[in-house]
Write a structure and sequence with these properties.
The protein has seven helices and 35 strands. The chain starts with a helix and ends with a strand. By secondary structure, the chain is mainly beta. The protein is globular. It has one domain: Maltoporin, Chain A.
Length: about 675
C-alpha cells in the first residue's frame, strides 16, 4: 500500500507541474470544517464537500446515493429506515443508528451526550450543503473518533429579483415507494426563512419491512444589523419502520424476502411485530456577532426530546430521552497570517428505559426500569498559521470529559466519570503552485459508549463484565490535493490506531452485548478524482472516480478463550471502487449513472463467514427545464440495474448465524420536481 501511495503522489505531481493554470475550478468554495474558511486544496485535512449540485444529482433519492460515492464513507440500510454510517471505520458496534461519528446541524450538535445520532429522521431535501471530515477530529469537535458530518439546512435564496420560492418534489417506485416534499423559502435583507415538509412511505422488499416517516423542518434567520444575527431552528420527525431481522445463509438463499423466522426458543419478527417507532423534536437558537471585520463570536443553545418504542423478539422497550446543550466559539483573524479559534461545548441528557415482556407486539409485564444521565464537555482551541515558503501550520487541542450516572430499579446504581485525555491535532500543509499541495497530519479523537451500549452489561445480568471504556484513536496521515483545469484530485494514506475499540456480540437470547477489544490497526488508502469536459458543442460530461482500500485488523483482542489477534475487523470491505458518469445536453436532457463495487466483508470476529462482493449500478434519465419563474425536473430511474444479490447492511457477530439482511433486486422509480420563484 505504501508503494502505491508514493507512486500515486509522483504521477499526480508530474501532472500538476506539466499543465497550465486555469481559472475554472471545481472546488473553489471555502469549507467550514475546522473553522478554516480555506478551499479544499489549502486545508490540511481529509474533507469531502458536497454542494447543492452533488446533493441534487439523484434528487429525492436519499443520502445513500450521495455518501456512497466517496472514499472512506459507507452508509448502510438493513431495511428501509434502518441506517448506519461509517467513516473510515467499522459498523461492528452499531446494531442501528450512528456511532463513532459526530453530526452537526447548522453548527449545532445533533449528536447528543449519549453519543448517538438518529440520522434516519433526516430528509435530504432539507439541506443545501454537507461536509464530511474523515478520521478523528477531537481537537475542535470533541467526541467522534470516526469523523464529523456538518449539515447545512437550506435557506432562502433570491433569484432574479424573486425573493420567494415554492418547491414540490415527488418520486414513486417499486415496492410501494412514495416520497414527497414541499418547501417554501423567503429571502430579504432582514429575514431569511425555510419551511419544509416531507413524507416517505414504502412497503419494503422483504416481509415486515414497511416504512412511514414524516418530517417538518423550519429555519429562520433574523439579521438585526450588519454585525448581529439570530438563527432559529426547529425539527420534528415521526418515523415508524418494521425490522425484519437477519437471516442465515441458507434462509437467504431459499427466500431472501423472508423476515426472521421463529425458532424452538424465540418467535418470529412478524409474530412479535418487531419495529422502531420514534418521535423526535430538536430545536436550537444561535447568535452571531461580528465585533470587527476580524473578530466574531457565536453562541448556541439547543435541545432534543425523543420518545422511542421498540418491540423486539425478546422484549418491548420504551425509551424517553431529553437532551440539552450549548456551544460557543470565538474566531479572531489576528493578521493575514494567523487565525485563532477557541470555544466550548456542553451536552447533557437523561434517558429512561422501561423494558417489558413482548407478547405479539404488546408490552405486558415490566422486566425492569433504569435511568441514565450522561454529561459531556469539551473546551477547544486552534491556531492556523501561514508560514514562509508556502507552509500552513495548524495546531489544535481540546480537553474533554464524559460521565454517566446510572440507576436501576432494585437498588443498583453507578456514578462513572471519566476524563478523556487531551485530544491534540497537528497538521502541516505545503503549497506547491497555485492549486497543488501536500500535507501531513496527526489527529486524535475519542468515542464514548452510547447509553444503549453502556447499560447492556446490566441488562444481560453479566455484572462481572468490565464497564465499557471510551474508544481512543490516533491517526497519522499524508496526502496530496490538486486542481488543474477541470480536474480535481486528492490521494491520502493513513493509519488509525484505536485503543479499547468497542465491538458488538449477541447473546443466545438475542440481546446485544458490547465489549472493549483492546487495540486495532486501521490502515487505508483513498483516492478521489472529479472532472468535467465538453465532448460536443451542446453536450457536457461530468465524472467522479474514487477508490478506497483498507487493511483493518485486531492487534490485540481476546474474548473469553478466543483470541482474535491478527484477524480482520468485521463489517469493513477491503476495497470499494465507485464511478459516477453524467451526460448533460443543452436542451436539458441528462443521464446520470453511479457504479459502486464493494469487496467481500467479514461478518464475525473469527473471520469464518463473509458476505460476497457485489456491484451496484444506479441510473437516472431525465429532463430539466426553466421557463421564466418556473423550473422543473422530470426523470425516470433504476437502482441495482445489474440485478445483483447482496445485503446493504449485515448483522455482525450475529447469534445463530443470522448475518444477512437481503436488499432489493432491480427496482424502478419515476419523479417530478417543480420550483416556482415569485
Amino acid at each position: 500500500m505504501t508503494k502505491l501511495f508514493f507512486v500515486s503522489i509522483l504521477c499526480l505531481s508530474l501532472t500538476a507541474f506539466g499543465q497550465k493554470d486555469s481559472t475554472q475550478h471545481l472546488q473553489e468554495v471555502s469549507v467550514k470544517a475546522y473553522s478554516s474558511q480555506k478551499t479544499l486544496t489549502r486545508l490540511a485535512a481529509p474533507v469531502i464537500q458536497l454542494k447543492p449540485k452533488e446533493l441534487n444529482r439523484f434528487e429525492n433519492g436519499g443520502f445513500l446515493r450521495v455518501f456512497n460515492q466517496y472514499p472512506g464513507i459507507r452508509m448502510e440500510q438493513r431495511s428501509p429506515g434502518s441506517y448506519r454510517i461509517s467513516i473510515r471505520g467499522s459498523s461492528v458496534r452499531s446494531p442501528f443508528g450512528v456511532r463513532n461519528v459526530k453530526v452537526y446541524w447548522n453548527d449545532i450538535p445533533l449528536t447528543d451526550a449519549n453519543n448517538e445520532t438518529y440520522f434516519n429522521q433526516l430528509d435530504l431535501n432539507g439541506f443545501q450543503g454537507i461536509e464530511v471530515i474523515k478520521g478523528p477530529a477531537g481537537s475542535i469537535y470533541g467526541a467522534g473518533v470516526g469523523g464529523v458530518i456538518l449539515l447545512d439546512s437550506k435557506a432562502g435564496q433570491a433569484q432574479e429579483r424573486k425573493s420567494q420560492n415554492l418547491k414540490l418534489n415527488g418520486i414513486v417506485g417499486s415496492y410501494g415507494l412514495a416520497n414527497t416534499s414541499l418547501s417554501y423559502t423567503q429571502a430579504s435583507k432582514v429575514n431569511n426563512t425555510f419551511l419544509n415538509y416531507s413524507h416517505i412511505g414504502s412497503n419494503g422488499y422483504r416481509e415486515h419491512s414497511a416504512l412511514n416517516r414524516n418530517v417538518f423542518n423550519w429555519r429562520n434567520s433574523i439579521f438585526v444589523n450588519d454585525k448581529y444575527a439570530i438563527h432559529i431552528f426547529n425539527f420534528f420527525g415521526d418515523i415508524h419502520y418494521q425490522t425484519p431481522g437477519g437471516l442465515t445463509a441458507a434462509q437467504k438463499d431459499e427466500n431472501p424476502r423472508s423476515a426472521r423466522l421463529a425458532t424452538a426458543f424465540t418467535p418470529s419478527a412478524i409474530e412479535q411485530k418487531a419495529a422502531i417507532d420514534q418521535k423526535l423534536y430538536s430545536f436550537g437558537i444561535s447568535q452571531e456577532y461580528k465585533a470587527t471585520s476580524t473578530l466574531n463570536f457565536s453562541l448556541s443553545l439547543f435541545g432534543t426530546l425523543s420518545n422511542l418504542e421498540n418491540p423486539f423478539i425478546t422484549n418491548f422497550e420504551k425509551r424517553k430521552q431529553k437532551a440539552i446543550g450549548s456551544r460557543g466559539k470565538a474566531q479572531w483573524l489576528l493578521n493575514e497570517y494567523i487565525n485563532l479559534v477557541g470555544g466550548f461545548e456542553i451536552l447533557a441528557s437523561r434517558s429512561n428505559f422501561d423494558v417489558f415482556d413482548n407478547e405479539q407486539g404488546t408490552a405486558t409485564n415490566l422486566q425492569y426500569s433504569e435511568e441514565v444521565k450522561a454529561k459531556q464537555s469539551t473546551i477547544f482551541a486552534q491556531m492556523e498559521s501561514e508560514l514562509p515558503l508556502g507552509f500552513i501550520l495548524t495546531t489544535g487541542i481540546s480537553l474533554n470529559s464524559q460521565g454517566y450516572d446510572y440507576a436501576r430499579e432494585g437498588g443498583l446504581s453507578l456514578d462513572k466519570k471519566s476524563s478523556i485525555p487531551v485530544r491534540p491535532r497537528l497538521a502541516l500543509l505545503k503549497k506547491i503552485g497555485p492549486d497543488f499541495s501536500f500535507y501531513g497530519s496527526y489527529s486524535t479523537g475519542y468515542s464514548a459508549p452510547t447509553v444503549q451500549e453502556f447499560v447492556t452489561v446490566f441488562q444481560s445480568g453479566q455484572n462481572n463484565t468490565p464497564i465499557l471504556q471510551a474508544e481512543r484513536g490516533e491517526n497519522l496521515e499524508f496526502g496530496i490535493k490538486g486542481q488543474k483545469q477541470k480536474v480535481y484530485y486528492e490521494v491520502s494514506a493513513y493509519e488509525l490506531k484505536l485503543k479499547d475499540a468497542i465491538v458488538r456480540t449477541v447473546t443466545e437470547s438475542g440481546l446485544d452485548l458490547f465489549k472493549n477489544s483492546g487495540l486495532t490497526s486501521q490502515k487505508g488508502l483513498e483516492m478521489l478524482f472529479k472532472f468535467q469536459e465538453k465532448i460536443a458543442p451542446k453536450l457536457a460530461f461530468e465524472g467522479l472516480f474514487s477508490g478506497d482500500f483498507k487493511n483493518y485488523k485486531y492487534v490485540k483482542y481476546q474474548d473469553g478463550d478466543q483470541t482474535y489477534d491478527g484477524n480482520r475487523i468485521p463489517s469493513v470491505p477491503n476495497k470499494t471502487i465507485t464511478a459516477s458518469l453524467d451526460f448533460i445536453h443543452a436542451s436539458g436532457l441528462f443521464l446520470r449513472n453511479n457504479l459502486n463495487y464493494v469487496d467481500r466483508i467479514q461478518l464475525n470476529d473469527a473471520n469464518s463467514v463473509a458476505a460476497n462482493a457485489y456491484t451496484l449500478l444506479n441510473s437516472r434519465l431525465g429532463w430539466e427545464k426553466k421557463v421564466k419563474a418556473l423550473a422543473y425536473n422530470l426523470y425516470f430511474g433504476a437502482d441495482n440495474l445489474l440485478n445483483c444479490s447482496y445485503s446493504l447492511g449485515n448483522d455482525i457477530n450475529a447469534f445463530g448465524n443470522r448475518y444477512f439482511n437481503p436488499a432489493a433486486p432491480r427496482t424502478w422509480n419515476a419523479g417530478l420536481s417543480v420550483n416556482y420563484a415569485f
